Structures are given as C-alpha cells and as structure tokens.
Amino acid sequence: MVKDMVKDPICGMEIEPEAAAARRSHMGHTFYFCSTQCADTFDADPHQYAHPVMDGNGANLVVGSATTGFNPDLSSPLQIELSIAGLTCSSCVTTVEHSLRALPGVLEAEVNYALAQAHVTYDPQAVGVSDMVNVIKKAGYDVGVSETRARITPGLHCGSCVSLIEEALYDIPGVLEATVNPGTDTVLVRYVTGQVDFAAMQAALESTGYQVARPVAEEEPVDEETAAHEREYKSLMRKFWFAAAISIPVMLVAYPELPWLYLPNLFVGEASETLIQTLFILSAIEIGR
Fold first, then answer.
1. Pairing mode, if any, of strands 78-85 and 22-26?
2. Neighbours of 194 (CB within 10 A)
3. Under CATH, what is the fold of the domain 78-143?
4. Does the global pTM surpass 0.70?
5. Which of 14, 123, 259, 277 could anchor a disulfide with 5, C-beta 3.0 to 4.6 Å?
6. Helix, strand, or coil here: 214?
7. What is the pLDDT of residue 130?
8. For the domain bounded by 6-64, which CATH number is listed?
9. What is the domain class of 145-216 according to CATH?
C-alpha cells in the first residue's frame, strides 16, 4: 500500500507523517519536518514558511488540521438557547416557534415564556444562528446580543491571517459576527448572549497560531503622544481667540488717519490721544498675562 507523503516546508524532503522528526501546528495547519534543524528554522519565522501554504502555493507541503478543542462535530445536530425580548403572551410564543421551525435546518424549536428563551435544535450545515436571529427579529422580537473586543498577539502580518481568525471564530456556535482589524490587532466578536464565553474565543484564536492578550474596552485611552497633540491644539485655540479679542480695541486706537475708525475722536481731543493709546495697550498686556 502506498503511504501518503508530505514535504518538509524548509528543505522540501518528502517524508511520511509518522516518521517525521518534528511537527508544528501553525494557523490551523500541521507542518512536518525531517529533522529538528528544519523545525528550528521554521520556529524562527513561521509566517515566512506558512505563507506558501496559506496562499495555495504548495498545499502538498502540509496535511490540513481542523480547528479542535472548541468546534463541535458539525455533522451532528447542535442545540442553542436564545434569549428573546418582547414576549407578552402565549401567541408570541407560538409566533416565534413557527418562525424558527420554518427555517430549513431547524429540527426543533421550543419557547419558554417564563424564561423568555427559545431552545433550538438545528443542523449547522443547513442553518446558522444568525439566520435564527434574523427570523425572530422579522417576527417583531429581539434577541439578546453581546459583544467582546480583544487584543490579538503577535501582530497580524497578512490578509490570510485575518480570514483564518474570522473563520475560526465563526465556527463557534452562537457567534454572529467576527471582525478582525489588522490596523489595531484587535477582533470584535458579536454573539448570542450567554452562548459564548471568552475561553471559547481564546481556544479558537489559539487554534490559528495566535493568542488573545486581553479583552479591551470599546474605546481605549489614547496614547501619550496623541494626548499631547490634543493639549497643544487646545492651547493654540485659546491663544487665537484671546488675540482676536484684544485686537479689536487695539485697532480702535492704532489708526488716527482713519477718522471713522479712530476711537479717541469720538470722546476727547488730540491732547489725550497718546494717553488713551497707552491705556488700551497696557490693559491688553495685563489681560494676556
């Protein structure tokens, strides 16, 4: 019987997976090595050697590995509980149940009026949780949705990394949306309240070769440099408005050749012009201190 062979991503040698001297898991794939030296080279920069596989150039170098530890067997039915807001009577229960049961892939749907929850058994290959949420909303009710934003480490370097992480998070039952921002190395996950915890997200990220550093707030504090620029801007604006305010009285005594603008002409004679000009300027200086 001919055994399946794989290639060492460093030296290109063909080897049997069982006979590999070392193996590494990275970004959802398993890599096999002919020697520990090749494995050490890979460890130094795994992204460099994983990219040909992620880009589809050299898929024969690796045997694919499914995300495990958080993703159930998608060929079997799953169960989920959806918190529903807006149930006011028994007819509401019937409406939600009929809406859910009408979805292809929903095997059973029961709504508990007292707990305001829908217990749904479904085939994940045929229907998603987001489909259930949408039909419930179309029926006139709301489903409890929460969101978590988390920091990803190490930093993201490629578009394939973003896609891989989002796909891994979408595989968690109850996740409605997963959006990775490579600019800030963060991921925003929206999910059915009570159905997804941070440990499940962490396991999903780890299966792709990344780590979740910590949950972060919706709006993180700006860094010190940004704060300094903001303070400087506010200071300059204060000075601008102050200069605009004191320039008006100064102009009223600065142009005696313009009788219609020269303020002393309205009140006193030429003898007091110098005194009035001096008082205006001194007042402006004193206010500006």
1. unpaired
2. 14
3. Alpha-Beta Plaits (3.30.70)
4. no
5. 14
6. strand
7. 85
8. 2.30.170
9. alpha beta
